[in-house]
């Protein structure tokens, strides 16, 4: 594959990510993607095999969960592992707002592409679950129900995504995106009974 092929594939992916986030998968046509990318309409079929394959390619290219194997040592310890994963989940939602919005849309709408999205999300949340269980078994974490605790951790890690629903209740000066990951991690670890979180 030559440089121009790589360039056009990336332009198609970037345009798809932008348009899917803004108008949804169903509301975005192949023609719109190609117009935005400055590409011939036939190139989506040629490079990807169709619009749904572009959707999957977005996650293969941009979803950071595939990098977990690079951090296997940190992810073996319940506290440092949770600290890393929760921080990275929150950073992802701030740094790649488009892909994060696509995830949220597809999951909330229970779309036909939900299974594709969950294929990428499950390994991350499964690792969180594994760390919670390991921490409880090791006497590091205290909680009653693993399932309920996992749901609360997921909720805390993603709560900032819907902050605009509660604007009247929240002081804007306290919502510093750079501090949210560390504050959320502290909140979760303290909730799990870690005293010096």
TrEMBL record:
<dbReference type="InterPro" id="IPR050109">
    <property type="entry name" value="HTH-type_TetR-like_transc_reg"/>
</dbReference>
<dbReference type="Pfam" id="PF00440">
    <property type="entry name" value="TetR_N"/>
</dbReference>
<feature type="domain" description="HTH tetR-type">
    <location>
        <begin position="6"/>
        <end position="66"/>
    </location>
</feature>
<dbReference type="InterPro" id="IPR009057">
    <property type="entry name" value="Homeodomain-like_sf"/>
</dbReference>
<keyword id="KW-0238">DNA-binding</keyword>
<dbReference type="InterPro" id="IPR023772">
    <property type="entry name" value="DNA-bd_HTH_TetR-type_CS"/>
</dbReference>
<protein>
    <submittedName>
        <fullName>TetR/AcrR family transcriptional regulator</fullName>
    </submittedName>
</protein>
<dbReference type="GO" id="GO:0003677">
    <property type="term" value="F:DNA binding"/>
</dbReference>
<dbReference type="GO" id="GO:0006355">
    <property type="term" value="P:regulation of DNA-templated transcription"/>
</dbReference>
<dbReference type="InterPro" id="IPR036271">
    <property type="entry name" value="Tet_transcr_reg_TetR-rel_C_sf"/>
</dbReference>
<dbReference type="InterPro" id="IPR001647">
    <property type="entry name" value="HTH_TetR"/>
</dbReference>
<feature type="DNA-binding region" description="H-T-H motif">
    <location>
        <begin position="29"/>
        <end position="48"/>
    </location>
</feature>
């Amino acid at each position: 594959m030559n440089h121009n092929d790589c360039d056009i594939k990336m332009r198609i992916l970037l345009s798809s990510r932008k348009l899917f986030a803004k108008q949804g998968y169903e509301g975005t046509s192949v023609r719109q993607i190609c117009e935005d990318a400055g590409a011939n309409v036939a190139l989506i079929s040629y490079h990807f095999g169709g619009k749904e394959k572009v959707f999957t390619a977005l996650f293969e290219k941009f979803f950071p969960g595939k990098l977990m194997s690079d951090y296997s040592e940190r992810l073996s310890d319940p506290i440092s592992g949770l600290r890393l994963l929760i921080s990275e989940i929150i950073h992802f939602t701030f740094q790649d707002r488009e892909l994060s919005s696509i995830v949220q849309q597809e999951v909330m709408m229970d779309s036909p592409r939900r299974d594709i999205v969950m294929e990428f999300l499950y390994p991350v949340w499964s690792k969180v679950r594994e760390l919670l269980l390991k921490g409880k078994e090791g006497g590091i974490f205290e909680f009653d129900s693993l399932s309920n605790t996992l749901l609360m951790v997921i909720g805390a890690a993603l709560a900032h995504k819907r902050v605009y629903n509660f604007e009247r209740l929240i002081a804007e000066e306290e919502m510093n995106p750079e501090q949210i990951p560390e504050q959320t991690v502290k909140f979760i670890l303290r909730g799990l009974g870690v005293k010096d979180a």
